[in-house]
Prior knowledge:
Radius of gyration: 16 Å
Shape: globular
Largest sheet: 7 strands, mixed
Order of helices and strands: EEEHHEEHEHEH
Low-confidence stretches: none
Strand order of the largest sheet: 1-2-7-6-3-5-4
Strand content: 15-25%
Number of strands: 7
Mean pLDDT: 94
Structural class: alpha/beta
CATH superfamily: Leucine Aminopeptidase, subunit E, domain 1
CATH topology: Leucine Aminopeptidase, subunit E, domain 1
Helix content: 40-55%
Distance between the termini: 32 Å
Amino acid sequence: MxxxxxxxxxxxxRGDITQQETDAIVNAANESLLGGGGVDGAIHxxxxxxxxxxCRTLGGCATGDAKITRGYRLKARxxxxxxxxxxxxxxxxxxxxxxxxxxxSLELARENNLASIAFPAISTGIYGYPRTEAAHIALxxxxxxxxxxxxxxxxxxxxxxxxxxxxHERVLQEFAGRAEQESNSAPET
Length: 189
């Protein structure tokens, strides 16, 4: 599924983020940036030991922030490492931190003139963020960013399983419906 926001596309696919041929893939990392489980471990394994060596020079990353490295053995030229929040109860700044992780990743892509970026569903694995809430935050943040920035041209959400893809498709359809209503109700000039 995909929708267009200005000159950019938001695309949802089921797949393996390590196989994406985008300019950058986003790593749902921990604060150390030194590898871990889930998406983080898969990206480090696929990129090879050079990625870990470069990450050691970055001094970690705060929750809600992002840092960029080369992609090494990945198909993507770059990895944008971002740290999403560990979900406690939604009342400890988790929504703001998750939105910031997506926004900072998009800002780094734009600052580095990257035309395409692929995201996983940040914080929905071992960090326990409820998928539907996380999908709303992710897609709202991406849509808002693309409404005011011309790049990246392609933002792909790469979702590991059918259930997560279905959740994101429902949320994206809601956004697409709202966008269509807004454009139909806009006064003609």
